[in-house]
C-alpha cells in the first residue's frame, strides 16, 4: 500500500533565483535546447512548482519585466504636463526602465539572450503589447495630434522598438546605466518626430 500524498502549503519558490538558474542554463546550453524539466532539476524544484510560477519557458527570461507597463503608466502620469510629448515619453520610459546597479550584469546577460533569440523577442513583443498604445495616447493628449494620424499610429511602436534595441546595444557595448543608452536613442527618435 502506498502512503497517501501529503497536502499542505505549496513549496515556496525564489522567483529571481529560479530565473537566474534558467538564464545560466540558456546561456550555457542554448535557449532552444534547455527544457523546463532541466530548469526544475537545476533549481531543485519540481516541474509542477516551476510551471506554477513560470507558465512558459520565455517567462523565465522576461520575469524581471513584469511591472514595466504599470511603471510606465505611473511615470507618464507623474511627468510635468508642460513637457513636450516626446520629452515626456522619453523621461517616463527611461524611469520605467531603470535597473538598480547591482542588477546590471544580470540584465546585460538577459538582454543579450533576448537579442540573440527571435522567439524571445517575439514573446517580448506580445508581453509589451499595449505599451505602444499607452505611448500613442500620451502623444495624442500632449501634442494634440489626431488619434487617427500617422504619427499616432507609429509613434508607440517606434519608441518601444527603439528603446529595446538601445537596451540590447547597452548589454553588448555600453557602459553606465542602461537608461543612458535608452535616453540617447529616444532623443534621436524624438528629433525625427519633432520634425513631423
Automatic annotation (TrEMBL):
Can you give the residue ranges of the HTH tetR-type domain? 12-72
Task: Give the annotated DNA-binding region, as residue ranges.
Answer: 35-54
Database matches in InterPro entries? Homeodomain-like_sf, HTH-type_TetR-like_transc_reg, HTH_TetR, MftR_C
> Which superkingdom, per the lineage?
Bacteria
An example Gene Ontology molecular-function term: transcription cis-regulatory region binding
Tell me which UniProt keywords the record has, alphabetically.
DNA-binding, Transcription, Transcription regulation
Question: Which PROSITE patterns does the UniProt entry name for this protein?
Answer: HTH_TETR_2
Q: Which PANTHER family does the record associate with it?
A: HTH-TYPE TRANSCRIPTIONAL REGULATOR BETI, HTH-TYPE TRANSCRIPTIONAL REGULATOR RUTR
Q: Give the protein's recorded name.
A: TetR family transcriptional regulator
Organism of provenance: Microcella daejeonensis
Amino acid at each position: 500500500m502506498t502512503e497517501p500524498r501529503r497536502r499542505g502549503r505549496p513549496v515556496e519558490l525564489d522567483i529571481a533565483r529560479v530565473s537566474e538558474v534558467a538564464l545560466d542554463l540558456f546561456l550555457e546550453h542554448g535557449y532552444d535546447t534547455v527544457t523546463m524539466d532541466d530548469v526544475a532539476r537545476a533549481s531543485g524544484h519540481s516541474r509542477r512548482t516551476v510551471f506554477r510560477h513560470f507558465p512558459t519557458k520565455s517567462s523565465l527570461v522576461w520575469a524581471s519585466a513584469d511591472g514595466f507597463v504599470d511603471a510606465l503608466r505611473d511615470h507618464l502620469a507623474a511627468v510635468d504636463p508642460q513637457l513636450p510629448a516626446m520629452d515626456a515619453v522619453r523621461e517616463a520610459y527611461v524611469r520605467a526602465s531603470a535597473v538598480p546597479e547591482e542588477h546590471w550584469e544580470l540584465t546585460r546577460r538577459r538582454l543579450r539572450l533576448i537579442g540573440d533569440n527571435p522567439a524571445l523577442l517575439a514573446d517580448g513583443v506580445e508581453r509589451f503589447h499595449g505599451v505602444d498604445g499607452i505611448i500613442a495616447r500620451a502623444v495624442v493628449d500632449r501634442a494634440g495630434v489626431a488619434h487617427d494620424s500617422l504619427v499616432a499610429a507609429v509613434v508607440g511602436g517606434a519608441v518601444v522598438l527603439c528603446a529595446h534595441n538601445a537596451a540590447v546595444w547597452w548589454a553588448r557595448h555600453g557602459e553606465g546605466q542602461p537608461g543612458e543608452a535608452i535616453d540617447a536613442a529616444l532623443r534621436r527618435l524624438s528629433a525625427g518626430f519633432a520634425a513631423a
